Amino acid sequence: MLSAVLEDAVGFIDRSRNLILQHFNSTREFKIKPDGSPVTLADLEAEDLLRELIRSHYPSHGVIGEEHGSDNPGAEFQWTIDPVDGTQNFAAGIPTFGTLLGIRYQGKAVLGIIDHPALDIRYAGAIGLGVTCNGKPVGNDRRISAYEVIASGTRSGYLRSGKGDIFDRLLAQFPDTRIYYDCFAHGLAISGALAAMVEYNVRIWDLTPVECLIQEAGGVYHRLDDPAALDSAGFTSSVHGQKDAVERVLRCIAG
Amino acid sequence: MLSAVLEDAVGFIDRSRNLILQHFNSTREFKIKPDGSPVTLADLEAEDLLRELIRSHYPSHGVIGEEHGSDNPGAEFQWTIDPVDGTQNFAAGIPTFGTLLGIRYQGKAVLGIIDHPALDIRYAGAIGLGVTCNGKPVGNDRRISAYEVIASGTRSGYLRSGKGDIFDRLLAQFPDTRIYYDCFAHGLAISGALAAMVEYNVRIWDLTPVECLIQEAGGVYHRLDDPAALDSAGFTSSVHGQKDAVERVLRCIAG
Fold first, then answer.
1. Considering only CB atoms, which residues of chain B are within 8 Å of chain A?
2. Cα–Cα 20 to 30 A to A8, which of A46, A104, A188, B105?
3. pLDDT tens digit string along A96-139?
4. Cβ partners under 8 Å of residue A36, min gap 6
5. Residue in chain B lying closest to A179 (CA)
């Protein structure tokens, strides 16, 4: 059953990608939301489109999206949508932004898509079905001996909960750490290119796809916050990647 | 005359790109050099290829390369080669690495190419000839009002000269700063997607292309070190991008 849903979800993302690319290649106008973050026409229209497609194909399912709140909050299947993850990057013209589509079933992440319209890169998969990148399986050929690279979200994410000290400790212990602002890093962790990725204080729609895909690809997902926070669409944090590297990062975070 | 050289240089890079992609899509073996940094077969073979092409087309010119030192150090024209900038990224499977090819004439950066084989993105240009990205002009449509994003090289670059305090001050003042390890950030600064990019303690072959291209695209290049260091292929540092943002970053660095 999940394979049919994945096929539909990929079809939905084909359509949102086209819409987002049209905006990216034109003016990329944005407004600043009350919380200080930017929102673009691409965000709003892509989420509307995905919601409409989900509603018409799966009317009994719930939807949680970044721009338009929750529908059917009591349903067992909950779709999560971040139409443009990395809106700052999108607005500036940095092509690593992406669309995040996920499904949770009874709270468990069971399906995920990470789509980069401007880079033509797409990760997709579901529990029991493996993970592909542009149609090719990823995860099976992960080279554990590869040069080990750690990445993190921006310092501003940590500051939202007064955790700047953890960011600074991470950068002191791993001075080669890359800092990515968007889901580009999650795809790299799924494919094994990143040994571990740390993300502080983001939302359920930011992490549901990587939570599903990284485990399906043979990696681990370690949630740092109270699990209950997820259900209320509150902030959530995680370290995910290859088991050994994730454990090293967790030791660093513990101080 | 420079336009004919640019045409030749682009042809050289077409060939190095093919060679590098073959290695990226196979085993990506690397060795650790005495200085602790990795080197791959792709680095060594691509630099050999580019040196051979330059030597046969421009026998009177000099060449400075990351892996094989200097030829003709007294020549007025000096080509700079970094065959795989971001070797860590290449070895890990992160596709933002790139090839950097530049020319200095009497010490002045006059031509540059930044090529990303795995992303199919190439910036190329020369003094007086403008800058293109995949053949389309960049620079003329820079949107100064775009969401302003700052980026930096890794903390390890600053630590090489005991400048960790500058990195920490930058991240404190600009907590959304992205940290890139390779030349991906330089292309973004040239196209105007990044407002400013800071890079500490890299080599002449890392910065010659962006030094030429960013000025040709309407931005500014501010060298932070002693200019004499460049001639001996010593470490060099820079802030480059849009004038206002570069000035804000320089004020932060000054403390």
1. 28, 30, 38, 88-89, 91-94, 119, 143, 146-149, 154-156, 159, 167-168, 171-172, 175-181, 188, 191-195
2. A188
3. 999 999 999 999 999 999 999 999 999 999 999 999 999 999 87
4. none
5. B179
Chain B residues whose beta carbon lies within 8 Å of the beta carbon of residue A28? 143, 146
- Measure the CA–CA gap between B165 and A3, rounded to whole angstroms: 51
Q: How far apart are CA A63 and CA B235, in angstroms?
A: 53
**Strand ranges for chain B from DSSP E:** 30-32, 38-40, 62-65, 69-71, 77-85, 98-105, 108-116, 121-126, 130-133, 136-138, 150-152, 178-179, 196-202, 220-223, 236-241
Block means of pLDDT (10 residues each) for chain A, 255 residues, are 96 98 89 82 95 97 88 94 94 95 96 98 97 88 64 94 93 96 96 94 92 95 74 77 94 93
CB nearest B146 (choices: A91, A172, A193): A91
- In whole angstroms, give the CA distance from residue B184 to residue B88: 13
Its ipTM equals 0.92
- Closest approach of A170 to chain B, Cα-based (Å): 11
pTM comes to 0.94
Could you tell me if A47 and A81 are in contact, meaning their C-beta atoms sit under 8 angstroms apart?
A: yes
Start-to-end Cα distance in chain A: 44
Instruction: From first to last of the 255 residues of chain B, give the pLDDT tens digit.
Output: 899 999 999 999 999 999 999 999 988 888 888 877 788 899 999 999 999 999 999 999 999 988 888 889 999 999 999 999 999 999 999 999 999 999 999 999 999 999 999 999 999 999 999 999 999 998 755 554 456 899 999 999 999 888 999 999 999 999 999 999 999 999 999 999 999 999 998 888 999 999 999 999 999 999 987 665 554 557 889 999 999 999 999 999 998
Tell me which chain A residues have a C-beta less than 8 angstroms from the C-beta of B179.
177-179
CA distance B27 to A121: 21
State how far residue B107 is from chain A, nearest Cα, in angstroms: 31
Looking at residue B140, its amino acid is N
Cβ neighbours of A167 in B, within 8 Å: 171
Interface contact flag, A154 B28, Cβ < 8 Å:
no
CB within 8 Å: B194 and A94: yes
Name every residue in A having a CB less than 8 A away from some CB of B: 28, 30, 38, 88-89, 91-94, 119, 143, 146-149, 154-156, 159, 167-168, 171-172, 175-181, 188, 191-195
- Residues A53 and B31: their CA atoms lie apart, in Å, by 50
